[in-house]
Fold each of these.
Amino acid sequence: MCMNVNIIYLYIQLLYKQMTIEQILKTASNMDPSKKTVVHTMFAGDYVLGRINSVLKPHDLTSQQYNVLRILRGQQGKPVSQKVIQERMINKNSNTTRLLDKLVKKKYVYREIDMENRRKLKIHITKDGRKILSKLDPLIDDIENKTTENLTVEEMNTLNGLLEKLRH
């Protein structure tokens, strides 16, 4: 299944290399630069997310759950509050409580009561959580490299600078 999805993405990538965003979306006329930039950014984001999800889905993980696990691994063994996780998430609209419930059920994280403030919970990544990340790391690295393979380092730096500028 994962191989078929990757083949489809490669086919789409080859097809789309030859087309403008207007041709892909079948619009009747050229878009003004502002609209084209926003639509193109959304389209590219969805494309990249689709490629990442093709790697995560066979492991029964969503991109948001993967993001939470990476945040927790970045704590290097130190627990973190749910609020901190929410602040650091890429998708700020995610239901963090529900995400954590699912990760607890999969035994990738566990919660513990904060003894300094019993109303708060400390979230920890488990050994199984670290194990699934180490399994996924090379797969995600491969997707990231394939996604950016047509860009030079200079182009990636320029694109990152422009995306930072777009957000501010």
Amino acid sequence: MLMKQILGATAVLGLLAQPTLAAVDTIQEVDVTTDISAIQNADAAVYWGSLEADLEAAIAARVTERLTDEPGARILVDIREVELSSAFDRALNLGDAVLVGQVNIVDDTDNSNFDAYELSVSLETARVVVPEGQTIVFNTDDRASYQALIDTFAQGVVDRLK
């Protein structure tokens, strides 16, 4: 009897530990915001300069069949500026670059269709492979790593949609 109660409690905890997913059938808007002017490091500001448009496009490309002009869910992403400049400020390598943002799924037509979470991706989670013995230096000319971060973040947002 005690074993059944323990298994039941474990199953409930397992369900509660699962991430919530917003049931998004239609998407009215994808909006990414970040205050590039708040980034004090000039190299970081240049590197991340087109982040808003690039991330919006990457998310939209993954949900094209759900995009509509009709009322629907809005995907709102606010990227933390401090994380964008930290790898540049500390003169660390590209592996230290990270995108961190607050993601909110808001649906004015269905209040139960809501989700909010912080998403963080780094080149480690983006699975960028570096040949053994080589290092990657974080610089403003490295667009492949930038794109890997954008793509991984966008996929993380889409993966949380039902």
Amino acid sequence: MALRVQAFGECILAKKTFLDFEQPIAELELKIEELRYVQSESAVDISQEIEQLSKKSQQLTKDIYSHLNAWQITKIARHPERPYTLDYVNELFTDFVEMHGDRHFADDMSIVGGLARFNGNPCMVLGHQKGRDTKERAIRNFGMSRPEGYRKALRLMKTAEKFKFANI
């Protein structure tokens, strides 16, 4: 189960979703945010304490993530704030033009693909998109591909091969 750290007085401090085994990290992050809030509202300089707690948080994160069991790793893979294909496309690529349809039946919205530029070089980007909210997930079939999605991906890969573009 995910834990959302939210309030300190009237101010919302953090909106990061923490998993159950990340509880100690969440508590430490909340303390850091509280100290930052206090420092911004008063003339007291507590930047050294904030820096010390930040280092402690980083070390605690390292320790927790170095000793995960299989179920905890699965929870991380299914994390609600994990980036999806379009998040990577927006950050890594320029001139992205999404291509739709399999040219036989329909367009599978769970498969995202199109032409883009990576470091100035043209390439074909392919991936699946699950959706962030219920409406988007319904449109994208909860990230589960249909046969037309596989045909769409194959068509895009063949197009990339034809024009000698890299498939990413």
Amino acid sequence: MFLRKTTAVLATVAALSIGVVGTAQAARTLTYNLSGAAQYTADIDAGAKVWNDNVQNVKLVKTTSTRANIIIVADDGWPRAQTTSLGNGRVWMGKQAIDQGYNKTRIAAHELGHILGLPDIKPGPCSSLMSGASAGVPCTNPVPNAAEKSRVERNFAGTAVVRTATFEDAA
């Protein structure tokens, strides 16, 4: 009897650990620091809200801590993101794209998408958030499509690995 109970417990633990049995896993919380974001704080908050409204396995929360997962700064260059690991890195809100008329919330959501493990999809349609600048200035869609949402959900379900990378979103 003891052996049967032990085997059942081990089988349940194994099933839970590999995702065979559904679990109510808490969302992973990533913090972002806006202290260097200058005039783009509302746009970054809006971009974070887009992700929070569209995925369940990860939540972006603003902090003033210098130990945030994501550091966001403004500069005069083109927007870009550099990941150090999945959910960690730096985002630059580049003034160059904003001056050309690109939508600030879309830029913020796109760059945060890189930190969440998504690559650029270029060229791409406006319906793809990760198409970035290739969708053109008229594109203001800040919402990830179903495939992008699904990939982020998988990334934060506990199995993804993202290598260090820099994503430069040049036109």
